[in-house]
Amino acid sequence: MHTPSTFPTQGNPSPYGGMYGDGGTYGAPDPYDVTTVLPPVAAYAATASPGNTAVFQPAGTNRPEAPSSAPGVPRHHARPRRTGTAAARPSTAASRAPHPAEGNRILVLIGFWGLLAASVALWWFNSPAGSVTDLAGGLTAAGRITGMAGGFVLLVQVLMMSRVIFLEEWLGAHDLMIWHRQLGAMTTVLILAHTALIIEGYALSSRVSFGSQTWTMLTTYEDMAGAFAATAILVAIALLAIRSVRRWMPYELWHLLHLTTYLVLLLGYGHQFTLGSDLQTPVARLYWTALYAVTLACLLWGRVLEPLVLNARHGLRVAAVVRESDTMFSVYIQGKNLHRIGAQAGQFFRWRFLTSHGWWQSHPFSLSCAPNRQWLRLTINPVGDHTSQLCSLRPGTRVIAEGPFGTFTADRQRRSQTLLIAAGSGIAPIRALLERTPAQTVLIYRARTAEEIVFRDELDDLAARRDARIHYVLGSRDDPWPQSLFTPEGMTDLVPDASSRDVFLCGPPALIAAAVDVLGQLGVPESQIHLDPFEF
User: Fold this and answer.
1) How many domains does the chain fold into?
2) Spatial distance between the Cα atoms of 75 and 288, rounded to a whole number of angstroms
């Protein structure tokens, strides 16, 4: 691990006026009394902790200590405690205003179905009345319709992969990823249906077998070999996307295979414009050319030009790598004019570290500290070969970043109070959000042992300064108290007013699913539940 001497160290204030750089005033007393917040299981007890924090762990165990840190670690930045007015709380009217993404979703859905209908309508206008007179003609017509629809949905799929920031700002990474998965299945079904219906329609018309017609088309039709190859790639990607299959694949391999979607688009283009009978009119060709042009322009901007502009402006480099726990570490990034990078607490970038073994791939990591003028911090829980190697990054390594992305931010709040729930690597964006949420925020931090708690000193310091309450819930998933936590009774014991709070969640999928279910039972509206883009 490498820590430059210019970073603030334990016991010394940061050079820009405090760790958090917000200039706010904190110190109002916490309205919650830890002695009244007791687990409903007698085998577990709340251990006294400094400030506004409580630790729930098996009774009789010692109070967990914060993970030790080496001298010079920049994650502990002490400064004199401020007193005075509590952190400003957003007005109720402002916090309940609908987020722009809600209206944007409706507009996008209208646009999607409208353009899909227009794509299919080209077949209608190009098919004279009475053109479908038998089964062969009906199958062929159905094949043409599914082909047009499948081609359009594929373009939308690629557009969602383009990484243009305006799409994520309009819709949020959460919805984009859900739609990407759903449309992926839809594309596969449509293209397979198109292939089967066209072949069977032609086979009936020619009075030959399905296999014979397939071979004839593959060997004699122009650009048909590429179309068959594109279909095979699409089916392979769909099979590999099945969760039970994907969880056994390294992220690096999945990412590389996923990029073959661009090859599907390229191979399908030649087939569509060469053999597509519904694209032979000037209007149809102009329409589809415009669709491809817009998609490719977004790809070029989001994947190439926008990252080049951002990195030329800021010149990002690795400043330090710091061990946070036995399993997690942080990478500090420095650069020019970081206050103009436009990021918010809770957002993420896709990071590409220009090393000999990792320059060719990027990974999404959330900021684990609200952006400031001095550095950006991402905290990593390695799960593959590439992320494991990042702990050996050298200071000065060039970094290419894409972003910022995501709407997992405090400005999405509808209510005046907040509940944060985190576990595992999910503490990274939640830790950053804690700097931006209003006073009386409650954080539930789930961990198996005290040694797994990351940012303990920072969280306790923030709790004291921002008038927040933190509950460290320790134990295995089979222990009574952690199990009781994700029941209506257990959650109510810790957060009696959960239904009147915005809830931000980030952690393992099973924990998030359990938390969302409990929150629903407690009457928390879906509009008040915010999920990190990687946790659903």
Assistant:
1) 3
2) 53
